[in-house]
Amino acid sequence: MLKVEEINSLIKLIDQTSISEFTYEANGTVLSMKKNNEMISADQQGTGGIISEQLSEKEIIEKNTSAISEKISAVTETEETIDDNYEIVSPIVGTLYMSPSPDSEPYVSEGAMVKKDTVVCIVEAMKLFNEVEAEIAGEIVEILAEDGEMVEYGQPLFRVREK
Predict the structure, then answer these.
(1) 46: alpha, beta or left, given left = phi > 0 and alpha = psi -120 to 50?
(2) Whole-model pTM?
(3) What is the mean pLDDT of the chain?
(4) Fewest CB within a 10 Å sphere: which of 3, 81, 98, 123?
């Protein structure tokens, strides 16, 4: 099936030419466009049905443009929220421990304030226990790994909002 961007491109290209009718077939999909009738229809092979809508070219472009705009704004909002966060990553491959011993409280929890030298967890590799420090002052917003989990080099462990 064609993507929305590809259909939009086809509509714009056809609109700029003197072509009054256009049909495109690929992988069992047929896309037909007519300038005079303002009709778009698609036939999906295997379903046996025809999907057709009576929409003007302008309505189609406006509909698709608004959908694309919504997706772009959602992506922009996500990027903005991620931009103000810092990720503490694993310095080595090993087993993650959130507390100094099984009976102890975790080093940090969500909402905890940390300083640059605050130990947030331990990563064990070949019986060597490596303390992981925050490296930034702020608030732990999210814990991205679980106690006892195997972690990879560079894997995000915590998300911190810088203060």
Answers:
(1) left
(2) 0.49
(3) 77
(4) 3
